[in-house]
Recover the amino acids of this structure.
């Protein structure tokens, strides 16, 4: 990081980061059935502002459910991308390209996969997907609300 910050590696024109996830079983999380939540779990509080869904033990891995964490990119990759920002002394990239998929596991993973997206940092919009732009905000489930900024 210091070498980049001090200019010892020259002008940086491109930076790349990635994340991949591995489940210990080829079945991934499987397909556990919906059930009653454990007595000591306030399922409504666990869901917070996300849409109300039945309790399912797979949701303990909240990172892979869109309504809970937005997926690996927003939940985990943001930390990896931040390292690039520190090294380059920037707050946001000019452009981002992303692609992903679900190639191995046949389980209940709750993410949108297979989209190839391009992000425009200044506009804060995707340049190639109105579907993705509609997902930038969402309604909160009552009584939850986003506090004023």
């Amino acid at each position: 990081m210091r070498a980049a910050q001090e200019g010892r590696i020259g002008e940086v024109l491109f930076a790349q980061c990635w994340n991949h996830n591995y489940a210990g079983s080829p079945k991934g999380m499987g397909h556990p059935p919906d059930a009653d939540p454990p007595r000591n779990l306030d399922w409504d509080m666990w869901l917070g502002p996300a849409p109300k869904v039945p309790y399912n033990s797979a949701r303990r891995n909240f990172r892979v459910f869109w309504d809970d964490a937005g997926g690996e990119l927003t939940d985990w990759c943001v930390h990896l991308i931040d390292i690039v920002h520190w090294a380059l002394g920037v707050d946001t990239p000019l452009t981002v390209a992303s692609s992903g998929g679900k190639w191995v596991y046949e389980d209940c993973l709750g993410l949108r996969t297979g989209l190839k997206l391009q992000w425009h940092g200044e506009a804060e919009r995707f340049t190639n997907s109105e579907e993705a732009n509609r997902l930038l905000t969402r309604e909160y489930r009552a009584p939850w609300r986003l506090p004023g900024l």
Observations:
- The mean pLDDT is 81.
- Residues 2-20+42-134 form one domain.
